[in-house]
Write a structure and sequence with these properties.
The chain is an alpha/beta fold. The chain is 39% helix and 19% strand. It contains 11 helices and 9 strands. It is elongated. The termini are far apart.
């Protein structure tokens, strides 16, 4: 079988199954099976595909048609132009979360060496990206899962920022000292997080790609979807230096609740940032 025939065969089945992005999924899975760049599917479409590569592509296709996301099949996902490894304890980083990274980078301004805390770091996609984009920054990545932290550390090593990344296994920020007791002499410049924010009652209605393959711990935001925010905002008020900022990914309908919560903890300069689809996606605020 030629490479082009293999790709078109997989693509056709994905289209017939009604997958959301059949062409892209087919390109990624077939090129991975062939161990070729995506561009080679066209440039080398008349070359023969090795039988073992064809068999691997068929295994990938079978898993995708069974509902497994491409990132889970390949064990990695692109985020902010970088490759991130995944494991069972981590969420797949979504493009919408790049809005949070952009918001933080845009507001760092001349602050070249911010000290940041990423709560619920998971794969480390946010933390590692910020470290890579701000080469003098330092990061504490907190997660309750040791398996997730292991993945985050591997990604930090992959992108050569591990010397500035400190993984901490803890329930939220229970292992961190408040700003007044911080050995740095001040608190964090930023607290960032993409916490679980889906209402418990909504979980059962999520797509099988999400509910069967993403860790529930990283999805379930409690009865009102605000449980994690209440803890993170309260903790951030203690951890941030004066004038420090908080940046949180939020659900499309949670802006009003987050504004109230941030005001309650004496945060000011509150902003709600929309993603490329026009949905509310990030809440930003500054500590007095």
């Amino acid at each position: 079988m030629e490479i082009g025939q293999l790709y078109r065969s997989v693509r056709g089945r994905f289209r017939e199954a009604g997958l959301e992005t059949p062409d892209l999924d087919a390109r990624l899975l077939v090129s991975a099976a062939l161990d070729l760049p995506v561009s080679a599917l066209l440039l080398q479409e008349r070359d023969p595909a090795a039988p073992e590569a064809v068999a691997q592509a068929e295994r990938h296709a079978h898993k995708r048609l069974a509902g497994m996301p491409v990132g889970r099949i390949l064990g990695e996902r692109e985020f902010y132009g970088r490759r991130f490894l995944l494991n069972e304890a981590t969420l797949e980083p979504r493009p919408d979360t790049e809005t949070l990274v952009d918001a933080v980078l845009d507001r760092c301004g001349a602050q070249e060496a911010p000290v940041i805390c990423d709560i619920g770091t998971g794969s480390g996609a946010i933390a590692v990206t910020l470290l890579a984009e701000r080469p003098l920054s330092r990061m504490v990545g907190v997660d309750l899962s040791e398996e997730a932290l292991s993945c985050a550390l591997r990604n930090a090593e992959l992108h050569e920022v591990a010397d500035r990344f400190v993984p901490v296994c803890a329930d939220y920020t229970s292992a961190l000292k408040p700003a007044a007791d911080c050995p740095l002499g001040r608190g964090f410049d930023w607290v960032v997080s993409n916490p679980p924010y889906i209402r418990t009652s909504v979980l059962a209605g999520l797509s099988r790609e999400v509910i069967q393959h993403d860790p529930i711990l990283a999805l379930d935001g409690g009865e009102d979807g605000l449980a994690a925010y209440a803890r993170i905002v309260a903790d951030a008020a203690q951890l941030l230096a004066s004038g420090g900022r908080i940046a949180l990914e939020i659900g499309y309908d949670q802006a009003g609740d987050l504004k109230k919560l941030l005001r309650h903890h004496d945060f000011v300069a509150i902003e709600i940032i929309r993603d490329l689809s026009g949905n509310n996606r990030v809440a930003l605020a500054r500590k007095r």
